[in-house]
Design goal:
By secondary structure, the chain is an all-alpha fold. 58% of the residues lie in helices and 0% in strands.
C-alpha cells in the first residue's frame, strides 16, 4: 500500500532569510557586506512571510526569524557605517591655505656688490 504524497511546506525563503541575517550579523564589522546581506534577507523574509500566510502557518516562524535577524543585521551594519563619521574631528582651515588679500609685489632688497 502506498502512502499519499504530502507536500512539504515552503520553508526555503524563511530559511534563506535566517541564513542571510546570520551571515550579515557575523560580518557586522564590514558594512559593505552586511548591509546588502541584510537587505536581501529582508526581501526573502517578506517573501517567506507572504508564502506562510498564503500556504499555511507552518513556515511562519522561519519567516519571522529571518525578518528579525536580517533587520538586525541591516541596522547594525548601518550603525557601523555611520559610527565612524561621528568621531572625526572637524578641523579648521590652516592659516597658510587661506586666500591672501591682494598686495603689490615688493622685491627683496638688492645684494650689495663686493669690491
Amino acid at each position: 500500500m502506498r502512502r499519499p504524497l504530502m507536500e512539504d511546506p515552503p520553508v526555503g525563503f524563511g530559511v534563506t532569510a535566517v541564513v542571510l541575517g546570520c551571515i550579515g550579523l557575523l560580518l557586522f564589522f564590514m558594512p559593505v557586506l552586511s548591509v546588502p546581506l541584510g537587505c536581501t534577507g529582508l526581501g526573502f523574509g517578506v517573501l517567506g512571510l507572504l508564502l506562510a500566510l498564503w500556504h499555511g502557518w507552518a513556515t511562519l516562524r522561519w519567516a519571522i526569524g529571518g525578518l528579525v535577524l536580517s533587520g538586525l543585521a541591516l541596522g547594525v551594519g548601518l550603525a557601523m557605517s555611520r559610527a565612524a563619521a561621528g568621531f572625526l574631528p572637524t578641523r579648521p582651515i590652516p592659516l597658510d591655505t587661506r586666500p591672501v588679500a591682494q598686495q603689490p609685489y615688493i622685491p627683496p632688497p638688492a645684494r650689495p656688490e663686493w669690491p
